[in-house]
Amino acid sequence: MLGFAVPQYGAAAYAELARFASTAEELGADSLWVGDRLLAAVQPTVGYAGKDTIPEQFRTGIDPFIALAVAATATTRARLGASVVVAPWYPPVQLARQLTSLDVVSGGRLLPGFGIGWSPEEYEAAGAPFSRRGAQLDELLDALDALWTTNPVAHQGERWSIPQSWVDLKPVQQPRPPIYLAAFSPAGLKRIGERADGWSAVVQVPGGVSLDMLSRQRQAIDDAARAAGRDSSTIHTYVRINVAEGTPVNQVVEAVRVLADNGYPDTFVDLLHVASTTDAHLDWVERLVAG
């Protein structure tokens, strides 16, 4: 299945997101995805993707939950994913309410994905501690599970506490929406194997579809799942394809084919660096679906 990141950042963030979502679905997109950027530091401590700067597009970004709500009401079939929400920025009660509402509004099409981010400045602005991000993610997942699967709900953790409370709003997907996690570190891949329903993998085009790398990461996930007594085959994979500026369509088509032929049939394409308008995004969608 082939999906696409919605035009959420840069000039396209001001354009017709609902038209993009509905037209992309009509053209054959199986899923639509959002990311989560809070701001772009002028002098970042950590840059984006190994660089010392942050892309100018990230200076403008539509809220991921609002973007998903718009996509949910503009479509009827496409799955609605996050790759990824930076989980520790959000208190679990509010996050659960937003995600549950999206699952209800969309009729059970939500694919929530979580990560721990990389920007100290964004953490500072969100009022969240940058240290122990993995531990924060673990606690948030515990709290979300309680909020989604029990009633009354209670949670007592290191960072967050929920007094015993009635929370009747529950997701359409039972017992809860499938949780996808993105990670590159050994600890993060281990967490996917131990507790995630899905893995949010990432490749770069051109030149970044490393099947060996994906295989090594997947092996670490599978080993952790088996050690935890889980069936590793139940952990689904979505591969995000980040397309570099100047990349021709045929190289992206080839990347999708290579992934599908080697056990990764479910992908979505991020066109942030190759399309800046709604029509340009949709032209890419049409050509990639046809390809």
What does this structure look like?
The protein is of the alpha/beta class. 39% of the residues lie in helices and 17% in strands. The chain has nine helices and twelve strands. The protein has helices at residues 17-27, 64-74, 92-105, 120-126, 133-149, 186-195, 211-227, 249-261, 278-290; strands spanning 2-5, 31-34, 79-82, 85-86, 110-111, 113-115, 153-156, 161-165, 180-181, 198-205, 236-243, 267-270. Strand 7 and strand 8 (161-165) form a beta hairpin. The two termini are 13 Å apart.
Biggest sheet overview: 10 strands, parallel
Low-confidence stretches: none
Which geometry do the CA atoms define?
globular
Structural class of the secondary structure composition?
Answer: alpha/beta
- Tell me the span between the first and last alpha carbons: 13 Å
- Compute the average pLDDT: 96
Strand arrangement, major sheet: 4-6-9-10-11-12-1-2-3-5
Task: Report the helical percentage.
Answer: 25-40%
Radius of gyration: 18 Å
Task: Tell me how many strands there are.
Answer: 12
Give me the strand/helix succession. EHEHEEHEEHHEEEHEHEHEH
Count of DSSP H/I helices: 9
Relative strand content: 15-25%
